């Protein structure tokens, strides 16, 4: 093929970004940066053909395949013992005029972007900022690729909007050597059929197929392009402060409502009519329960060209740092051996990382800069918001019953529920209950005991596909999502992928072990 961009490089293994797993490999495909000379559409369509050629090679060679982004996941959901595709050089982005959208589209064509799978969240932030637009939601940092973040259910903390998946309105899936499709919901048309014809793709509108493919962790083929809906640029007033863990905070947690909390005097006069983000952190080494929690709330205000980005040291955790970010930043500073004598030192370090602040910033400047220095571990469980405090108390009780000092942070974020069949933010609203720490046997054991106690208490919960989720098995997947949703998801995979050979190519141990591969 002339102007071929793909190449193959031998790689014996892949290590997750957080050193959470090692995966043996047959090798990895990658793409050279586009050197121009063709139109953007021709360049994009040529890449589709190369992705199809990669699938054909894996079918012919009997190898499994997974497209990968930045390897942000802490579970092996996105890897395989066959071949990977490094997609990070695939980063085109297209804009549209109203004439290209379906007459029934209820959004703003000027805010639509069709983006190639290798675009990072950071790159999209910059791309949109140039047009004074913004992503609707973001994870706690910006290093993931958009396709990777979408596929594993990255949730962020836009509690009235939802996870990253909720801003995706169309998917271009390469589903075999001879087949690729552009997929939308039937209930929400976006583009005219001519758009799919320009991609030379089959045009499908189907709610079930779309809701299945939306969160499918790379097992529905290769997501080459995503149609995302941006929003007007806006500023977030972010306040991080310490608050008593009292009935007021418990009520706010149980109702997923930050407006029930009084703000500290440092935030006096801040507009609070449009809440955006609500997150609460606990350090169990300060007590089980501790007297205080760390609260992070954000409220919107309109964009102003007078905006002045807050200073940020790239060596520090970002202002929107999660518990995982903090554990990564503390990796080299956490005392050893961990015992009661070092608890005051550990607590001081956590307090420093979670220092109070009042900032004005846009998404691009708030959610950034994960600092990973060693083996870290993160688990995120989705559950109904009204069970949040009960789950929190269980986590405290399990910690109290143990004998180990554990370097962990416990937290809650809140997001609107999703329609994705296997979206772990399936409750409305969903409380994302997170436990982040170092990847130690004692921390893993603690997580397993918490899972058991949550089950015993009858608290329904799902698990983030891209984080530590060793609790999952086929029975629990069906219990958490229901036989109907799991059956529809499997049926959609069988319908979209070209044939049984291709389904085998896009299976991996993770999928098989959870009973989702056919």
List unreliable stretches of 5+ residues.
none
Query: Helical element count?
Result: 15
> Can you list the strand order of the major beta sheet?
18-15-17-16-20-21-19-22
Strand elements, count: 22
Which descriptor suits the 3D outline? globular
Structural class of the secondary structure composition?
alpha+beta
Please report the distance between the alpha carbons of the first and last residues. Answer: 33 Å
The tally of domains stands at: 2
CATH architecture of the largest domain: 2-Layer Sandwich
The value of Rg in angstroms is: 23 Å
The CATH class of the largest domain:
Alpha Beta
CATH topology grouping of the largest domain: Uridine Diphospho-n-acetylenolpyruvylglucosamine Reductase, domain 3
Short description:
With 518 residues, the chain is an alpha+beta fold.
Describe what this molecule looks like in 3D.
This protein is an alpha+beta fold. The chain folds into 2 domains: 250 residues, Uridine Diphospho-n-acetylenolpyruvylglucosamine Reductase, domain 3, CATH 3.30.465.10; 237 residues, Alpha-Beta Plaits. 28% of the residues lie in helices and 24% in strands. It has 15 helices and 22 strands. The strands form 5 sheets. The protein has an 8-stranded antiparallel beta sheet with strand order 18-15-17-16-20-21-19-22, with helices on both faces. Strands 7-8-13-10-11-12 form a 6-stranded mixed beta sheet, sandwiched between helices. Strands 1-4-6-5 form a 4-stranded mixed beta sheet, with helices on one face. β11, α4 and β12 form a beta-alpha-beta unit. The longest helix is centred in the first third of the chain and has 22 residues. The radius of gyration is 23 Å and the shape is globular. The relative contact order is 0.14.
């Amino acid at each position: 093929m002339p102007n071929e961009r793909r190449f193959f490089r031998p790689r014996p293994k892949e290590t997750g970004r957080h050193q959470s797993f090692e995966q043996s490999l047959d090798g990895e495909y990658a793409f050279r940066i586009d050197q121009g000379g063709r139109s953007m559409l021709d360049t994009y369509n040529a890449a589709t053909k190369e992705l199809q050629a990669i699938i054909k090679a894996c079918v012919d060679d009997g190898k499994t395949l997974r497209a990968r982004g930045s390897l942000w996941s802490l579970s092996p959901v996105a890897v395989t013992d066959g071949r990977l595709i490094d997609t990070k050089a695939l980063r085109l982005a297209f804009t549209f005029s109203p004439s290209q959208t379906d007459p029934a589209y209820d959004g703003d064509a000027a805010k639509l972007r069709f983006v190639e799978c290798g675009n990072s969240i950071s790159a999209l932030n910059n791309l949109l900022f140039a047009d004074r637009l913004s992503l609707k939601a973001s994870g706690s940092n910006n290093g993931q690729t958009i396709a990777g973040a979408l596929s594993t259910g990255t949730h962020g903390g836009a509690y009235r909007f939802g996870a990253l998946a909720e801003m995706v309105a169309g998917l271009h899936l390469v589903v075999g050597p001879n087949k690729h499709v552009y997929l939308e919901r039937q209930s929400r048309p976006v583009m005219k059929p001519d758009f799919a014809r320009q991609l030379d793709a089959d045009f499908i509108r189907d709610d079930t197929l779309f809701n299945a493919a939306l969160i499918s962790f790379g097992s529905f083929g290769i997501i080459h392009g995503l149609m995302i809906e941006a929003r007007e640029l806006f500023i977030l007033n972010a306040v991080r402060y310490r608050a008593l863990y009292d009935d007021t905070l418990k009520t706010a947690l149980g109702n997923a409502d930050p407006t029930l909390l009084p703000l500290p005097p440092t935030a006096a006069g801040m507009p609070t009519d449009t809440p955006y983000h609500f997150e609460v952190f606990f350090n169990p080494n300060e007590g089980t329960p501790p007297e205080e929690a760390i609260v992070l709330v954000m409220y919107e205000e309109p964009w102003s060209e007078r905006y002045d980005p807050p200073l940020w040291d790239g060596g520090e955790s970002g202002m929107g740092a999660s518990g995982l970010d903090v554990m990564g930043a503390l990796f080299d500073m956490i005392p050893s051996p961990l015992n009661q004598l070092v608890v005051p030192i550990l607590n001081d370090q956590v307090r420093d990382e979670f220092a109070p602040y009042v900032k004005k910033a846009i998404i691009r400047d708030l959610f950034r800069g994960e600092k990973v220095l060693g083996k870290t571990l993160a688990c995120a469980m989705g559950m109904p918001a009204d069970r949040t405090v009960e789950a929190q108390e269980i986590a405290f009780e399990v910690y109290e019953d143990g004998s180990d000092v554990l370097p962990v942070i416990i937290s809650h974020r809140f997001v609107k529920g999703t329609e994705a069949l296997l979206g772990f933010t399936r409750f409305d609203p969903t409380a994302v209950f997170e436990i982040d720490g170092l990847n130690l046997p004692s921390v893993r054991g603690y997580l397993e005991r918490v899972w058991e106690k949550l089950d015993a208490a009858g608290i329904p919960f799902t698990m983030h596909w891209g984080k530590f989720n060793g609790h999952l098995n086929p029975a629990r997947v069906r219990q958490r999502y229901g036989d109907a949703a799991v059956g529809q998801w499997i049926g959609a995979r069988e319908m979209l992928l070209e044939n049984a050979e291709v389904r085998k190519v896009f299976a991996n141990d993770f999928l098989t072990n959870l009973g989702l591969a056919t």
